[in-house]
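User: Hi! I'm working on a homework problem where we have to compare a predicted structure to a textbook description. Could you give me the structure for the chain below?
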Amino acid sequence: MSLTNQIITTVIAVILGLAVSTLYILSDSSRNTLVTQLESHAEDGATHLGLYLAPYMQKGDVATVETAVNAIFDSGFYQRIDVLDRAGEALYSKQFDSSANIDAPEWFIQLIPITPPTKTRDIAYNWQQVGSIHIRSRAGYAYEQLWLGVRNALLLSAVLSLLAALVLSGLLRILLSPLRGVEHQAMALARREYIEQPNLPKTRELRRVVTAMNLMVRQVENMFNEQNRNIEALRTAAYRDTLTGLNNRKAALTQLNEHLEYRQDFGPASLICLRLNNLQQLNKELGEDNTNHLIQTSARLLDELAKQLGFNVTGRMGGAELVLLARRRNRDLWQQKLEPLANQINTLHAQLNNTEGKPNIVSIGISSCEGHDKTETLLSQARFAADQAEENNEAIAFYSQHQAQRGWSEQWQEHVANVIGNGQIFLQQQTLVGTENQPVHAEVFARILNQENEPCSAGEFLGVARDLDLLPVIDRLVIERALSYLLTHEAPSRLAVNLANQTLSQPEFVDWLLQKLEQSPASARLSIEVNETAILTRLDAIQSLRNSLQGLGVEFGVDNFGTHPNGFSYLYALRPDYLKIDGSLVRHLSHSEEDRFFVSSLISVAHSLEIQAHAEHVENETQRSTLQGMKIDGTQGYLHGQPSALGSVSEV
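Assistant: Happy to help. Predicted structure tokens:
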């Protein structure tokens, strides 16, 4: 019960106690008054009746005595009247019918006992004793009159108490409303929501409480914000290049390895190495500040190009060397994209150097792969091509003149489109394991067969599907088959499906998804995951989707968490059920103190918001034990087995 209700209940109880006590006192006083009144009536009745009946009693006129007694008895004040002659023999007696009900509750009669008074009067006539009259008052009359008064008083007290309770309740709720605000603040603070009460109450004690709570909210907010700033500063120091804002060398190599060697999700890819020639000479000609400005501009232009190209990795490898990994394009398209970029850099150099000509100071090397080459190999090839461009005084050079610099083949695009259009996909799963080695869920992946009827990796067909705008079709198939599987299998207990950014950009898909989940009895055993980049691209839409999923009892998770440069402040508004820390942050935990501290901070932030924290791409026990020391909630990766066909092996 709330404090307000407790106070109201207590006050009402006190009011009722006072009312009952007052009624008891009043009833006791009324009882005494009624008894006195009955005594007076009995005495007056005996006197008047004696004066009237004296001559008739002397004569023994019983008929007249009877008539007079009946007349006075009808007043209802008397229980019994006895008229006796001088010998003590009854001339006439009249008694109230004992079977007649008293118009008052039995409990009331038992609660307030009344002893009816009896009066006797000796009767004389002509100086002779002619007899006596005995009158006993009726208690029922007293009870009826007393009950009538008490009942009316009870009704009035009840009405007044109810009105007092309503008025008191309203006043107390108004006076104590700041306490409800304090309660709301405390609950919000537990969710890392910082709410202050702008209106301070006039009551001194409540004003102090609200002021203290507002102060605590500000202090806790500052503390959490400082924690987040420290984590962001660590991220910047450990993974971001301070000059350009791109990934530094360590982060760039880590993400290149993650996409090219582990996930293999790029498919055919091109690595661009952009270099400003003769950095030392540039420093002499332009000065350090202007040279840094030239590098910053080059990084900005390369980053803008990367955003146009879609899925990418950018970074500064050191000095004036920048890299960009993107899906493979043909030679003409790269020329078309990169030549204007090189011209802008050369123009800026000429402006900074105050020269009329535009000497070429940019060397761009491009190497390509099928999406599963070694990072070191691809980077060495791109650098070799950049060296060739510098040697030939050209802006752009490709690693191999005979290498095919084109994207997907028409035959492969047609094959992927036909397979997806016919719904010929199959699902694989990989188990997420909790701290007690218990399965948490199985993440499912879509796969297809290549032209040789062999399973192909995600990178070999998802890029084509993305270019052909077929990712929404794949996600629909995955959702339908995952729900169908859950309906017919007790295990796994839960499946997780990762939705593509391209899919989430279609409102009709979101409507279809929510309708499908609402209609399926198995929806509560499904988890929906969204990539962190997709969340930051359309946060409002994802927030709406998360709220709808929560209403349907469907879990929501953030995939590839912790690598986006915009940070993780969105967690406070989104409040997912769990997040999966990106595998690139987990890969070097055993020998990178910076990675350990950063991952530990991410876990702490998640737990402070009551969000489960899992780790992806865990490959050995050393990584797992390190993560368990950081209080990780679950791990997923090759340590627990490679992806397998859904329902065949290693079911959850």
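For your comparison, note the following. The longest strand covers residues 128-137. The longest helix spans residues 3-59. Good luck with the assignment!
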